[in-house]
Amino acid sequence: EVDLEERLGELDLRSDSDVLPPTDSTPEILKRALSGLSARWKNWWIRGILTLAMISVFFLIIYLGSFMLMLLVLSIQVKCYHEIITIGYRVYHSYDLPWFRSLSWYFLLCVNYFFYGETVADYFATFVQRREQLQFLIRYHRFISFALYLTGFCMFVLSLVKKHYRLQFYMFAWTHVTLLITVTQSHLVIQNLFEGMIWFLVPISSVICNDITAYIFGFFFGRTPLIKLSPKKTWEGFIGGFFSTVVFGFIFSYFLAQHQYFVCPVEYNSETNRFVTECEPSELFQIKKYSVPPLLQAVLGWETVNMYPFQMHSIALSTFASLIGPFGGFFASGFKRAFKIKDFADTIPGHGGIMDRFDCQYLMATFVHVYITSFIRGPNPSKLLKQLLILQPEQQLSVYKTLKSHLVEKGILQPSLRG
Predict the structure, then answer these.
(1) Which has the minimum average pLDDT: 67-76, 234-243, 370-379?
(2) Which residue of 5, 132, 291, 403 sits 20 to 30 Å from the alpha carbon of 69, by its own alpha carbon?
(3) Cα–Cα distance between 319 and 239 in angstroms, integer?
(4) pTM (2 decimals)?
(5) pLDDT at residue 199 above 80?
(6) Is 89 exposed, middle or buried (0-12, 13-18, 19+ CB in 10 A)?
(7) How many CB atoms lie within 10 A of CB 146?
(8) What gap in Å lies between CA 270 and CA 401, rounded to an integer?
(9) By C-alpha distance, which of 352, 368, 149, 161 is closest to 249?
């Protein structure tokens, strides 16, 4: 009998029988309708039809509101996690590992409990304050989260079997890297959404636009290979996708910036038990007049132009989506080549798995979060007030006295209020 650890030490020497077999999930009715086309054009139509269907569903979910978008993000996170874990399970022949699949899903629940608990504490403070049982969970949230993770850690140690040591630690690391990629990034997506739906829609739509336009330019004009990891990617598709995405992001931002529904921070109203998006739009979303650079005045014939300041930020977001975002796809391509698989799964005909479509989105989510915290977000009085309301009365009084003393020293309070 071949020792399992020796076999894992020679992963690069695996035979072709270890490669995950490709599958075809294309509906039969679609196959029959496209049966007369070449493989190239058949794939074009399948991808196009499914892309339009997914975009339509996405717009429907946007119409249903921010809560449905959060559920969508959570669903995509779980599916991406499942696809990556399944690859590890099959590639490393982990069928006989004790508790592996159960522990993988247990760790997913633990990490989600931690991150979403933090979100509840930040954005639902007023709601939590009214329910004593939730106050206990929020007060000791991090301790409970650590205890849950520690339980899983101990279960993993207890499950160690001598002949599977190396494989079990391979899969333990695989699980944690997958959690880092999927859960933490999806948490950032939701954080961006709370800043205003526009910070969710513009980045995601820019990545989708770049995927589509790069594919179209590459399909019709592609001649020059871009990177060896993805032989079908071309410079023509990359450059065409870049310019198309920047233009799309600029125009799309203009339409979104006109509506409170998209620009206002998403807040939970404890009185109505609903998410609300009502506010006085910030300066980012108010029309301003800008001078056109002299070089462009001759071309455009305009000396000034009226636009939203956010449109300038959209250029930065679109540029990242089209120049750096594709590297998330290249990374995924390298991952698939390393394990000799074509796609992460066969969930979407012509596209592969959910992870095949969202490999660039996770990288984009991190950039948007860093961009907001670095260049956009300032002090948030509303959020600070929610945190103050959670304090005990004597703590609130202490804060009041300290703030009053500070304002008196600054000369901000009127003399009549200095008593």
Answers:
(1) 370-379
(2) 132
(3) 11
(4) 0.81
(5) yes
(6) middle
(7) 13
(8) 28
(9) 368
